[in-house]
Amino acid sequence: MLEGYLEIDGKDIPRTLLGTSPFIGAAHFGHRARLYLLDLYRNPEAMARVMVKSYDLGVRGIQLIPHPPVVEALQIARDQGFPMDIIATIRPESEKDDINLLSELDTSVMLVDPEITDQADWDSIGEKLDDIKDAGSLPGLITQFPFSTTQKLLDSPVLNDFKLYMIPLNRLGYLMDSDTYGPEERTQFKEIIEKMDKTIIAMHVLAAGIMTPDDAFDYLKTADFVDMVALGIASEAEAEESFSKLFKR
């Protein structure tokens, strides 16, 4: 499931991405975030080993959050002969610098951070999408509120200005803006996502580690509107379990 590449505006984009939120100790990992900062963020060699292992398993893309240690790890992996196509997030606090750096790294796709997307400031978002296109990358958006932000985007002036849309998605509805995520909500969600007519990247598929890969991927297989997936991986062992099971689906 989700092997190979998609062609988007002449660029071949890997369908499965190594997510890097564990590498930066993202807050949604709870008590594990501190451990990830100590074991991964402060140790680029350890992050590079996860990248290399993922590459060996067939993963050809990375959803890069361009903090300096993570970029250093990526360069280590590249220097060792394991190049990954970059689908990156531009961070709100350093957008211009990130775009310049990511352009130098030959980044295929740049995504506007959900902190910006979910504010629904269309003028600001439109400017950022233009900056991404000017840098030669495909533009996209990330949301942490896939129900409410998607509804807003459908009526927004930027709807035709981006190609990819990254959304949280898992069977539990965890880290999604819905009190429940039963059959009715799933049907509604599918309808609004399909109206977007974008290349959809699923994130938080494992619900920050709450779900097992088997359970997570069984649900993901039913979400036929998903074109790509990013899996946050914190170790070589996690990479082996998660990507092997994903590709066998």
Keywords:
249 residues, 10 helices, single chain, two-stranded antiparallel sheet, TIM Barrel, eight-stranded parallel beta barrel, alpha/beta
How many distinct domains? Answer: 1
Count of helical stretches = 10
Give the structural class.
alpha/beta
Strand content: 15-25%
Separation of the first and last Cα atoms: 5 Å
CATH class value: Alpha Beta
Can you say what the CATH homologous superfamily is? NADP-dependent oxidoreductase domain
Sequence stretches where pLDDT stays below 50 over 5 or more residues:
none
State the shape.
Answer: globular
Question: Helix and strand string, N-terminal first?
Answer: EEEHHEHEHEHHEHEHEHEH
Overall mean confidence score, pLDDT: 96
- In spatial order, strands of the major sheet run 3-4-5-6-7-8-9-10
Number of strands: 10
Gross CATH architecture: Alpha-Beta Barrel
Share of residues in helices: 40-55%
- Nearest-angstrom radius of gyration? 17 Å
CATH topology name = TIM Barrel
Most strands sheet: 8 strands, parallel, barrel
